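User: Can you predict the 3D structure for this chain?
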Amino acid sequence: MLKKVLTILILMTLSACAGASAPDRTGQAVYDTRDGHQSTFSELIPVLLRQRIIIVGEHHTSVAHHRAQLMVIRALKEAGADVAIGLEMFRSDSQQALNRWVSGELSSAAFEKIYYDNWTFPWDYYRMIFDYARERRIPMVGLNVAREVTAQVARKGFGSLSEAQRGKLSNVTCRVDEDYENYIRKAFGAHGHGKMKFTYFCEAQLVWDTIMAVNAIDYLKSNPGAIMVLLCGAGHARKGAVPRQISSRSSMAHVVLLPETADSITIETITAEDADYLIRLEN
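Assistant: Here is the predicted structure, written as C-alpha cells:
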C-alpha cells in the first residue's frame, strides 16, 4: 500500500513539474564511452547541435530516464535549435492526432485515449515530455508501425506481410552484429516465447528498428534545418539497432545517449559499441 501511495505521489510531482517549470538539469554528468571523459551535460550541448538525429534511450517505466529525455529536448530548444521529437510510442498513422495535440486542438482527456491506442505504458510517465512539446509547439513525429504488423512478423516472418503491410519496408532480414544478436536472444528468452522461431522474433525487432530509422530520415529530408530527438527503448537505441539502420540509409550525423540504469547500463558495463554517451543519474 505504501509503495502504491509513493508511486502516485511521484506521478503527481511529474505532472506539476512538466514544461517550462521543470528544473534545469544541464549540470547532469555525462560519460563519453569512447575516451572515458566525464563532463556536464551543458558541455555536451554544442556537440548535440551539430547532429541531425539524437537518439535517447529509455526504460519505459523509468521516471529518471524520461526526465533525461526532456533535459535533452529543452536544452536544444533553448539553444535555438529547430527541434522535433521522434516517438517509438506512436504509429505514423496517428500523426494527425500528434499534430492536433501540439497545436492545442485536443484536450488532455481526448489525447490520452489516442495515446493508449498507441502505447501501453502509463501516460503519466511521458506526460512531462508531451506537455513541454505542446507548450513550445515542438513537432512530435510518430515513427512506428501498427502492432499487428510486428505481431504477424514475430509469428510468421517478414515474408508473410502483404505489399500494403510492408509499406516503406522493402526487405527485413535477421542480419545483425554479434552483440545485437546476443541482446535479441536474451530478450527472446526473457519473453518466454515458446515455439516462436527466434528468426521471426529477430525480424520483428528489426521491423521496429528499420521503420523508425526510415521515418526519421524522411522527416528530416522534408525539414532540412531540423534536429530530431528520437525517443525509444534502450534496446532499439543501442548502436546495432536504430542507429545501424540510419547509417545504412543516410549520412546524417547522429549520436546515441543512454541514461544510466543501476542494474544494466553503467560506466562499468557500457562501451562505445552500445552508445556514444552515458547520462549519469546519481544526482
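The longest helix spans residues 198-222. Residues 1-21 have pLDDT under 50 and may be disordered.
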